[in-house]
Each structure stands twice: as C-alpha cells, then as structure tokens.
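Handoff note, outgoing to incoming analyst
You'll be picking up this chain. Sequence as last confirmed:
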Amino acid sequence: MATVPPLLAQWAPAVTLEPLTPPVQPGWSRFNPSIVRTAGTTTIGVRSANYRLTDAGRYEMPDTVIRSQTVLIDLVDGESRQPRPLQIHTDRTPSSFPVQGWEDVRLFAGEAGICGLATVRDVDESGVCRIALLVPQGDDVVAEVLVDSPRPGRHEKNWIPWPISGAVRAVYSWDPLRIITIDPATGTSDLDERGSSGLGPSTRGGAGPVDLDDGETLFVVHESHLLPTGRAYLHRFVTIGGDGLVARASPRLRLTGFGVEFAAGAAREGGDLLMTFGVADREAWLARLPIAGVLERLDPVRRPIGVTA
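Most recent structure output, in case you need it:
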C-alpha cells in the first residue's frame, strides 16, 4: 500500500502558517505568492487572477480572457502592510491570445532593486508560454525583457531565479540539473548542463534561493501527480552545494492537504525560513519555520553514476 507523504506540519512541527489576504479586485483570487529580502525589508508578491479553480478542477470566470496581476505587500513585525500593485511595463502590443498578463512572478533581489521572472502567454497568437525577466525601473515598477528559450517553441515556466555576483541566473531544470544565465539587456540565454541530480525527471520549479551558512543554497521544488481525485503537488526542500550540484533533500511533503499546492517563494529572515505558497489557485499562505529544523532533516541525494562501456 502506498504511503501518504507527511504534511509540512507533521515533518516540521514548529511551522506556523499565516494567510496572505491583500486587497484585490472584486471576485479575483489570491494565490502563488513569492517573497524577497532586500536591505532588511521583506516583500511578498501575491498573484491575483480573475478566475477560480473549483473543487472539481474546472476553471470559472466571468470574462472570456484570463487576466493576472501581482500585488506587493511588505512584511513588518510579522504583519502584511502597504499593499500596492506591481507595475509592469512592456513596449510590445499583446496578442489576442486569451491569457493576458504576467503569471507567477518570482521576485528576486538584483543590483538595482527588486527583479522578477514570470510566465507570459500573450507574446504572439500561439499562446506559447514565454519567460519574461522583469528589471527594475523605479519603486514598484519593472520593465519586461523577453528571454530566449533554449528550445524555441517549448512552453517555458517555473524557472527559479538564482542570481550570483551580479549575473542573472535561474534553475532551468532539476533532473538533469541545468542552470540558465540571462543577458538582462537582450534576453539572450546560455545553458549550463550539470548532469543528473538524482531527484527524478518529474521534479519542477519551485522557490528560492536561500543562502546557507555552510555555502549551500536551499530551494523548494515540486512534483505534479494526476490522481483519480485530480491533480496533486508534492514538495521537497533541496540544497545545491558549493560544487554546483544537488547535495541534500527532504522527503516528499504535502503542504496543507492533497491537491493543487504551489510553493513560489522562499527567503531567510534571521533564523527563520519563510516560504510562500498557493492552495487551489485561490489562497495565498506564508509558512515560517526554524531553518535549522529544516536542514537537520535533509538527507544526502544519491546521484546515478555513469558507466563507460
């Protein structure tokens, strides 16, 4: 009989969960938040959209077009304050494809301020998912730079920002582990192949990076499974070591239940790990847990060893 993965609160009993409820347009949802720390300030970006995912797995909306926005809030003394929209500028004219706006913005700290990576589908009439790099233009204002895909025509999403030494990088895939470097001026990209990670080919996207004291970097990844009751997501905490390879991982976890759950942000605040996630495409949550308690529960990941014929 299959073992049901533990809940996050069972695996890490010290976790606390807080709903994120910034004001949004009437009838719009809140979900898939991300988080970033800049100069001692914690900023959360909550996605809001004009549709609702029903318990039966159907999308309901009063419009013929799916629309998304991102609402920023600052976390001050454990409370969410100063809600305001993230303003995204683009020089292009959106296509008529019926999915408009920037989805699942993953915030990260750049040299000039808060940046982001997002999925966008209205670049042309095909509706192919593209990645947009969002570069700062002023307070709460970013501009879009479309990023070239290593495989043109492929749906691209769930890239995890991983900036380092001023370079804009992201985790492109987890198994095999591929790191992509982006030119913020042109959107051209370069892919670094690092081989099998041992996590499994169904491992996707997630949240991070969180720099650790020992030189490792912590991320949160997910797997999507189609069950008779609908789609369900499982998450794992994962570290990449100083050698640039996957080092440790947690077991697969449920966040709050067994369904559509999506971790899109992680940051460090003192001794705490802050993780932001969405539930059922209609709820946004913040999890806070001692980072030491997470790290002590991670196990080494065994990578396949190649054999020369």
